Amino acid sequence: MNTAPSSSTFFIVVLLSGKGSNLQAILNYIQQQQLNIKISAVICDRSEALGLEIAKQHGVATFYINPKDFATRQAFDLALQNQISSLPCDLIVLAGFMRILSADFVNYFAGKLINIHPSLLPKFKGLNTHQRVLDANEKTHGCTVHYVSAELDNGPIIAQSQFNVQPSDDATTLQKKVHALEHKLYPQVIQSIAEKKSQEN
Ligand code: GRF
Fold it and tell me: Which residues line ligand 1 (CB under 6 A)?
């Protein structure tokens, strides 16, 4: 694996709040494909997040920013912005980061901020997507990687993966199927953004 920082190394910072299965998938993919992509750090807003442990196991720097230390969302976002700005970073990857980011933060990092969402946007923005897909009798379901804009789950779509919903599916099976797609799609999108940047240089 080529992880030696060089002028062509593509640096990402991952923000998460939970299990970190997408972080794990990104780490695996970078290693398997021998990509010159390095995760500068994982930043988290929940001290108990399993994703922090995954990062530590892989020798990735971690930062926990406690929202309770800040009086306002803007103050938290500014601390987050300062932390990211202190790191090598070509792309900020939201991987289950359960906070709504302020417009100032999003605009500051415009074009460098991507998210993965468990639905085929623009359908089913927000939470509980799997149950809502079932309730709406959708024939297909999937995931979307998109640039983050100030409006929730509304930025330009980069890529989607989908599958047909089966009569036997429930919210749990849909979540598993979506996760499996996410774990393929997200690393591939990151790779393609990194390749695009290296061609520009
Ligand atoms: C994923 O389903 C993603 O679409 C959503 O949050 C979940 C994160 O899962 N934004 P994990 O923490 O990567 O396992």
Answer: 16, 18-22, 51, 95-96, 116-118, 143, 179, 182
